[in-house]
Amino acid sequence: MAAPVDLELKKAFSELQVKMIDTQQKVKMADLQIDQLTRVQKHAKLTHAEIATLPDNTRLYEGVGRMFILQSKEEINNLLTDKQKTADEKIKELEQRKVYLERSVKEAEDNIREMLLSRRAH
After folding, report:
1. Residues 34, 94: contact at Cβ < 8 Å?
2. Overall pTM > 0.85
3. CA-CA distances (angstroms) from residue 103 to 12, 49, 106?
């Protein structure tokens, strides 16, 4: 009877290991995306602060691909504000996803612990 128990535990451990590796990769990817979005957010904030110091009649250009388009100061400010809001929303989504992933791994670990404890009790 010890062999089926060992096989069941081995299977549970291997599934946990696969889940842990997958989750760790997803968490690392989320961290990288958060870092990148934070840089985008910071860049937009700094650009917004620089533009605020310019007179209203200053000619401003928006970079689009390999060309530049003349835009008003208000339009540029709106674009930068939208960029910051979008980055903030995505960061919040990624943080929630990280929490979910970490919780699912913890639950899997707890399930295996319970399995081990129940096996020892018998």
Report:
1. yes
2. no
3. 18, 39, 5
Looking at the structure of the chain, the number of domains it has is 1
Residue 44 belongs to what domain range? 2-121
CA angle 29, 24, 106 (to 5 degrees): 130
Question: Which residues in the chain show pLDDT less than 70?
Answer: 1-5, 122
Burial (CB count <10 Å: 0-12, 13-18, 19+), residue 87: buried
CATH number at residue 39: 1.10.287.370
Scan for tokens 């913890």, then name that residue. Answer: 106
- Quote the distance between the C-alpha of residue 23 and its chain's center: 12
pLDDT digits (tens, 9 = 90+) for 56-76: 889 999 999 999 999 999 999
